[in-house]
Design a protein that fits this description.
about 40% strand, mainly beta
């Protein structure tokens, strides 16, 4: 299996691209490759950060992270959730991040 630029794909690679079930490009870690499959031949793990009110509690393995007590100026004080997701994709839709 190879990435978009012909580089061999391997589990554990840090990659970027657009999986099937997101509406945007992601950066993540290759977690699974299925050699010989014409489509849907890889899985990529990645992290999303969402406002608490944007997520239904109990979906997709949610780890709550309350940033409301943080003081850096760039934080709004809103409660955030860090969501670890795994998405299906096509190896040839991704590039390895060096």
């Amino acid at each position: 299996m190879h990435y978009k630029d012909g580089t061999p794909a391997a589990v554990g690679d840090q990659i970027k691209g657009k999986p099937y079930n997101t509406d945007h490009e992601i950066v993540g870690i290759m977690t699974s490759i299925t050699p010989g499959a014409d489509s849907c031949n890889c899985k990529v793990a990645f992290v999303e950060v969402k406002n608490l009110d944007e997520v239904i509690i109990g979906s997709q393995g949610i780890l709550s992270c309350d940033l409301s007590k943080s003081t850096p100026e760039n934080l709004s004080g809103e409660k955030k959730l860090i969501i670890l997701r795994e998405a299906y994709g096509q190896c040839s839709d991704f590039l390895k991040v060096v």
